[in-house]
Write a structure and sequence with these properties.
Pfam families: LON_substr_bdg. It comes from Palleronia pontilimi. This is LON peptidase substrate-binding domain-containing protein. The protein contains 6 helices and 6 strands; from the N terminus they run ββαββββααααα. By secondary structure, it is of the alpha+beta class. Helices cover 32% and strands 24% of the residues. The protein folds into 2 domains: 120 residues, Roll (Archaeosine Trna-guanine Transglycosylase, Chain: A, domain 4); 72 residues. The two termini are 35 Å apart.
Length: 213
């Protein structure tokens, strides 16, 4: 288990649209670009083995690169290499962070000074959601999965703990990057569940209007 003292002040950052990592979640990644192969290799040499996942902002073509201020750090907990030199890795979500500044250096990938303040709860025990009405939520989810032609193991969903269920769906559902960011920044599990329900209901309406903010 990590504690606040184990968290570095500078973090390698992987900007990847639509790839959401949440505390205590697991994110598999396929790494093939040379700069990110180098990032993984450097990460494995550190005592913490953390990589920060961040959503790029949607900016006009040719504009300066911009990242969302809040990301989530994951510990490199799984690693394998293919015959042609690609890496298949798994990140285990540890804590969200706030970007303070980009660090200039010679590495081919981005590194940032970060702050972990305000996210102490991420390192604690799994959250619970006392207001979660699972039966009603699963009915909504069934309609959404049918509309999107998605398949799942309903037995596992029914038995999953509140946080595992809500966070796994937040990470896996095919929402837009800005929607994924809203799920990441939700201050509590209950708020994330409410945001998730709003996004599912919006998708079921098929609307381009009244998009959730």
């Amino acid at each position: 288990m990590f504690n606040a003292a184990d968290l570095p002040q500078t973090l390698a950052v992987f900007p990847l649209p639509g790839a959401l990592l949440l505390p205590r979640g697991k994110l598999p990644l396929h790494i093939f670009e040379p700069r990110y192969l180098a990032m993984v290799e450097d990460c494995m040499k550190t005592p913490h083995r953390l990589i920060g996942m961040v959503q790029p902002r949607d900016v006009p073509e040719g504009a300066a690169r911009r990242l969302h201020a809040i990301g989530c750090a994951g510990r490199l907990s799984g690693f394998s290499e293919t015959d042609d030199g690609r890496y298949m890795i798994t990140l285990s979500g540890m804590s969200r962070f706030r970007i303070k500044a980009e660090v200039e250096g010679f590495e081919p990938y981005m590194r940032c000074d970060v702050s972990w303040d305000g996210f102490e709860r991420d390192l604690g025990q799994p959250e619970r959601d006392p207001g979660f009405r699972r039966d009603k939520f699963l009915e909504l989810l069934d309609r959404y999965f049918s509309a999107e032609e998605l398949k799942t193991d309903w037995g596992s969903l029914t038995e999953a703990e509140d946080e595992l269920l809500i966070n796994a769906l937040s990470m896996l559902c095919p929402f837009e990057p800005e929607d994924k960011q809203a799920l990441l920044e939700a201050p509590t599990l209950a708020t994330r569940r409410e945001t998730l329900v709003t996004l599912i209901e919006f998708a079921l309406r098929g609307g381009d209007e009244d998009r959730p903010q």
